[in-house]
Design brief:
The complex is a heterodimer of chains A (158) and B (249). Chain A is an alpha+beta fold and 158 residues long. Chain A has four helices and six strands. Chain A has a single domain, classed as OB fold (Dihydrolipoamide Acetyltransferase, E2P) (Beta Barrel), CATH 2.40.50.140. In chain A, strands 1-3-4-6-5 form a five-stranded mixed barrel. In chain A, strand 2 and strand 3 form a beta hairpin. The longest helix of chain A is centred in the N-terminal third of the chain and has 20 residues. Helix content of chain B is 80%, strand content 0%. Chain B is built from nine helices and no strands. In chain B, helix 1 packs parallel to helix 8 and helix 4 runs antiparallel to helix 8. The longest helix of chain B is centred in the last third of the chain and has 37 residues. Classes of the chains: A alpha+beta (158), B mainly alpha (249). At the A-B interface, helix 1 and strand 6 of A face helix 3, helix 4, helix 6, helix 7 and helix 8 of B.
Chain lengths: 158, 249
């Protein structure tokens, strides 16, 4: 039995597929569907950012990680980038941070922002870069003691 | 230039290997299955013992040696499904339809394995098993799409209509393949961008390559076996009913 050739279907399907891909790739989808906001974008939105559940993404600013005296509440600042003058937001979390959480690492936090200018989060996620390296000589099992290091366990001054 | 040459040689070797496994005796497939097992076991040693831990993630990072190959095999399989779908509509033949069916199922299998492994990796590193970031979402869409594709094949009784319409669907859902690949570049995501040998320690690259070849051997065995099953099914469908066959002789 000879099979019918259906070239027109191939052309039509390829056109639909190509069009859809072009729309997604070249269209302005990124600005409507962002996975997270940067601190600068959120601060620029002003009062419009208050109250709604949003994701905020950036890097943990150096020297800002602090626990309260009961070691149940974690605060730190999420900044646009690692420059000292980068726009940043104070984040409060009541969750055990992932093992890799530390100064300078990328984070995405889910929660709400309000007029007290504090971002209260119930979900703290840590990014990893695309770099994979063994520990440098003398570093040992570096990853095992990140949370007990001095920078992360210091109590926040009252 | 060397990159292009490497790609051409790679595609030729994989394609030739698949052709040989489909046409050759069953013992060849058994041989490659044994090879895959040997490579997987030695690959586990490579990944778990020989390769160093990651300085940020520690031993958890070793899941990369199975997560990444699984996703590579998934993307290869669904790309093959796309090529078979296009080829079928331009020049229809049963082998193309059978290879399309086989590659969709193999792609769904490796994609699901890769997604589960990625999720297990996500919990200790990201802090969550799942988040609706562009990479994870587009991968989830891929799995749902190819599950739908396979369901569609079961719903259509007439073999030729099944071949034609699943080819159309195979072309349209393939849109998701480049989206998955570029999602980490086009949009902000939790998932990191693709690594390259320059961002990965050479010892880790070796372990990853070894495991990728192990998965490739497994991929070839699965794909060729599933192809032969699909061919046998279509042939049975095409065969005239026994009564008619007897009357004709």
């Amino acid at each position: 039995m000879a099979l019918k050739r259906t070239t027109w279907l191939a052309v039509a399907a390829l056109l639909i597929a190509g069009g859809a891909l072009a729309f997604i790739a070249l269209g302005d989808l990124g600005s409507n569907l962002v996975y997270y906001w940067t601190p600068a974008e959120m601060l620029d939105a002003g009062s419009k950012a208050y109250g709604a559940t949003i994701r905020l993404g950036g890097v943990v600013q150096r020297g800002t990680i602090a626990w309260d005296s009961g070691h149940t509440e974690l605060t730190f600042r999420v900044a646009n980038d690692m420059t000292p003058t980068a726009k940043n937001v104070l984040v409060r979390v009541r969750e055990t941070p992932p093992q890799m959480f530390r100064e300078g690492i990328g984070v995405v936090v889910e929660g709400t922002f309000d007029k007290s200018q504090v971002f209260t989060s119930n979900r703290l996620m840590v990014n990893h870069s695309n770099e994979y390296r063994p520990p440098k000589p003398g570093e040992g099992d570096r990853w095992k003691n990140t949370l007990s290091s001095d920078t992360t366990s210091s109590a926040r001054p009252k | 230039m060397t990159h292009a040459l490497f790609t051409v040689v790679g595609v030729a070797v994989v394609g030739g290997g698949l052709y040989a496994l489909v046409r050759g005796p069953a013992s060849w497939r058994a041989g490659v299955a044994v090879l895959a097992l040997v490579l997987l076991v030695s690959g586990a040693w490579y990944g778990l013992v020989q390769a160093p831990p990651d300085r940020e993630m520690g031993n958890v990072q070793r899941i990369m040696y199975v997560h990444v190959p699984a996703q590579w095999m998934a993307l290869m399989a669904v790309t093959l499904n796309f090529l078979c779908s296009v080829a079928y509509l331009f020049r229809p033949s049963w082998p193309k339809d059978a290879l399309a069916e086989a590659s969709a199922e193999v792609g769904l299998f490796f994609g699901a394995v890769g997604l589960v492994l990625g999720s297990i990796w996500g919990k200790p590193t990201w802090g969550v098993y799942w988040s609706w970031d562009p990479r994870l979402t587009s991968e989830a869409i891929l799995l749902v799409a190819y599950a739908g594709y396979l369901a569609l094949r079961r719903f259509i009784d007439d073999a030729e209509r099944r071949a034609v319409w699943s080819a159309v669907v195979g072309i349209i859902i393939a849109v998701d393949i480049p989206i998955i690949w570029f999602s980490v570049r086009w949009w902000r995501s939790l998932h990191q961008m693709q690594s390259s040998p320059s961002t990965v320690d050479p010892d880790m690259v070796r372990a990853l390559r070894w495991n990728a070849f192990a998965f490739l051997a497994l991929w070839l065995v699965f794909l060729s076996t599933r192809y032969l099953i699909a061919r046998a099914r279509t042939e049975r469908e095409m065969a005239p009913p026994p009564m008619v066959a007897e009357a004709a002789t």
